[in-house]
TrEMBL record:
SUPFAM superfamilies linked to this entry: Ribokinase-like
InterPro entries per UniProt: Carboh/pur_kinase_PfkB_CS, PfkB_dom, Ribokinase-like
Native source organism of the sequence: Mesorhizobium tianshanense
Keywords noted in UniProt: Kinase, Transferase
GO molecular function annotations of the record: kinase activity
Segments forming domain Carbohydrate kinase PfkB: 5-295
Protein's name according to its UniProt entry: Sugar/nucleoside kinase (Ribokinase family)
Amino acid sequence: MSGRLVHVGSAVVDYVYRIDALPAPGTEKTASSFAQVAGGGFNMMVAASRTGMKVVFGGQLGSGPNGDFLRAAFAAEGIETLTPPSPVMDSGNCVALISRDAERTFVSWPGAEGVLTRALMAPVSVEPGDWVFTSGYTLSYPGSRDALTDWIETLPAETPFVFDPTPIISDIPRGILSRVLACTTWLSCNATEAAEIACPGDIEAVAARLLADHCPKAIGVVVRAGAKGCFLRLADGTAQSVSGFKVEAIDTNGAGDTHIGAFVSALSRGVQPFEAARYANAAAALSVTRHGGSSAPTDQEIQTFLSHGDRSTTAHGRKQEARF
């Protein structure tokens, strides 16, 4: 496999509480379990790394306990950090409430990952064969969006740039979003995010508008649909719904990140787009059968899963369909 994944996004510490259901306003719940884990963009990086792609991080980590925790998690996965720690603040965090039906609710607090300048990004170089990724989270922060967008616009024309707008797409100024989409080689989003960009409608029509009106340089767009799989449209007009897989979900946190990381990793080693989408569907399906956001499977696990016959399904379970 040639090239690296250069992830210029954000990573935070997740504080994960498992509960039977969200508490009613003014009431309290006792969690059945608690875990402190690396989250945010870390989940996508882990998915790419575990499926064989070399990954480096070009975002910003903090200088306090959260930043130290993230650096240790990066090191454990073999992910190199290219930028020095912030000298003035720690990394941010996210409280994740995972209910019995595998749904998740988040409250986040930004930290060092929300501050990027061109000077801070100076050590982030792109080599021939590299792939570059960023997400809408980093573009939503006032302290990072301008520098990151300027940097993206200077990427070599031959460098594939992958973008995930994420659920906070409405927090990204439209001008910034348009500039980033104009540079995008591959767009991966869920149906809600796709409609936010290209207006609601039939998924085939929305995907066509994304390419024609918003992503003029893109090779293709992936619209993720949870357990149903995803819809993939290429710039040449070829399009296909790629079925998902029937599994019992216990934790959907990080499934979308797993899907994107596995998809990019497969593309980087020459897998054709529709087969890469099936591979990503399998990776995401495996991830939701495990606890934790960074629950991405290895390439060997995905290949074994795919070799066990036709597990595909058009729909399975109300909650697993939610947003990967």
